[in-house]
Amino acid sequence: MLQFDLVTPTALVRSEEVYMVTVPGSEGDFGVLEGHAPFMSTVKAGELAIYKSAGSEPERLTIEGGFAEVNERGLTILAEKVG
Fold first, then answer.
1. What is the distance between the terminal CA atoms of the chain, rounded to a whole angstrom?
2. pTM here?
């Protein structure tokens, strides 16, 4: 499972283990699974798709820009706003 943390300037919005997250990157959408290579990206306004398990319907959250970091711990998104 992938450790996923979603943070805004004022709060930790979510911290949980998920199967996969699709992120609206500024250079295009990208998906992150457990074991993904480390990288950083800016995030544009759009929708996160959070998959709790393989083949499940995604939960969708709207975010308004920020940064995403993938490292050995998992995926962290620092969003300007979640709404």
1. 25
2. 0.94
